[in-house]
Amino acid sequence: MTETARFLGLPERLSDGLRPRVVIFGAGHGSTYPAKDSSAYALAANAIRAASQEDAPLLQNWDFDLGGPLFSGVPVCCVDHGNISTDMRDNAGNRARIEAKTREILTQGAVPVLLGGDDSVPIPFISGFADRGPVWVLQIDAHIDWRHEVEGELYGYSSPMRRVSEMPHIAGIVQAGLRAVGSAGLDEIKAAQRYGSRFVTAREIHAEGVEAALRHIPEGSRTVVTLDCDGLDPSVMPGVAARTPGGLTYTQVIDLIAGLGRRSTIAGFDLVELYPPADIDGLSALTAARMLVNAIGTIIRQPISK
């Protein structure tokens, strides 16, 4: 895959043997469906990187979302490792490479941030935390993604939360931004409820604020965030395959991230389902880039985990 400049112009490695707090990497595909052309999702990571370049010279400037500069007066401590190789015809290999990269970053004591990619990449990403449990999962999404299988594929983009619920290191799942209708039938809803997933609709967040979701995350826990771009309203995130009105605003999403950072330790973060062919004037890529800035800023402001 041809790569653009790295996110925010960040380095690939830090000098002088310094260890990063956050490591970014991209992955276009996890497990694709044979009858679906998912190739355009592989464009997303570099579209987000390109959208971040205007802010690259401004890393020391005041960021009003964060209440200070991104790195809060400390040296740059985030790196971008570029994209790992994925192939639409190699589902098992894609999953193995994503999980291995996640484990590698965690072994370095850093927080992995994954730029997807289709919504199957969270399965191997979250699987990579198997030795780091227990962890909670906060999913921001219009859909619950609880299908057992589609076209015989167990690990596709309709199934990530179903597969995550089967992982023994996952302590619980909160699903925020749900609305309208998706692929979930009554059986999927019942399966998620039996597991104990906490459903938080977009309407609840509009009415009650982000605390409607955050109150389900135990204080002092460790949490992986998986952010599907269709969790946001298409007025700010049109570049998705399944536009659904009534979604979360940009401010609600960054407030969720900031609030989670005060309540829990963000152990990992992925952003998926940006579909560049549907974007309008680069708005979705810009919104995604800004959400990632907020995630990085929140992680950097957390105490260093022992």
TrEMBL record:
Keyword Hydrolase set for record? yes
GO-annotated biological processes: putrescine biosynthetic process from arginine, via agmatine
Identify its protein family: Belongs to the arginase family.
Per the UniProt record, the lineage of the source organism begins with: Bacteria, Pseudomonadati, Pseudomonadota, Alphaproteobacteria, Hyphomicrobiales
Q: Which PANTHER family match?
A: ARGINASE/AGMATINASE, GUANIDINO ACID HYDROLASE, MITOCHONDRIAL
Q: Which organism is it from?
A: Roseibium aggregatum
Where do the coiled-coil regions begin and end?
none
- Annotated keywords: Hydrolase, Metal-binding
Q: What is this protein called?
A: Agmatinase
Keyword Metal-binding among record annotations = yes
Annotated GO molecular function terms are: agmatinase activity; metal ion binding
